[in-house]
């Protein structure tokens, strides 16, 4: 869900989950 590379999840548009959450999932 946190595919910033694919342009799927944009924190600027609508942060669904906390930065720490999607950041942890990305790594």
UniProtKB/TrEMBL annotation:
Annotated region described as Disordered, given as residue ranges: 1-27
UniProt-recorded name of the protein: Uncharacterized protein
Species name: Nymphaea colorata (pocket water lily)
